[in-house]
Design a protein that fits this description.
By secondary structure, the protein is α/β, with parallel strands linked by helices. The chain is built from five helices and six strands. The longest helix is centred in the middle third of the chain and has 11 residues.
Length: 114
């Protein structure tokens, strides 16, 4: 899975559209969301590291953000991905708080062959 984009999603539906393990995180951020939200679901297993190249592809495909809220789901976001998504004022739903860089995550994935 690369990513899934759900546009113009009513805020109360976000918790129903995220993967099961993210439902409680989505519920806890529901009050921060505007009426309509864009949701991007990236690879979301705990070992998945979302790199900036994938974030850029998703944002390019998304085009102009038409909703005030952007929620992103992913196992772990690289530092570069976080920086890009912060510029979009994204709300992060992530299972891991480890801050990899794009280069560091590539080395890790080659060593452990996820």
């Amino acid at each position: 899975m690369k990513f899934i984009i759900l546009k113009n999603l009513e805020a109360y539906l976000v918790k129903e559209r995220v993967p099961t393990e993210y439902k409680s995180l989505a519920l806890s951020c529901e009050s921060q969301l505007d009426e309509l939200t864009t949701l991007i679901i990236f690879p979301h297993n705990k070992k998945d590291i979302v790199k900036s190249s994938l974030v850029k592809k998703a944002l390019n495909k998304l085009g102009e953000l038409t909703t005030p809220s952007l929620v992103v789901v992913g196992g772990c976001f690289s530092a570069e991905s976080v920086e890009i998504l912060h510029q979009q004022n994204a709300i992060f739903l992530s299972l891991s708080e480890i801050h990899w860089t794009d280069a560091g995550s590539s080395k890790l994935q080659k060593q452990h062959k996820f």
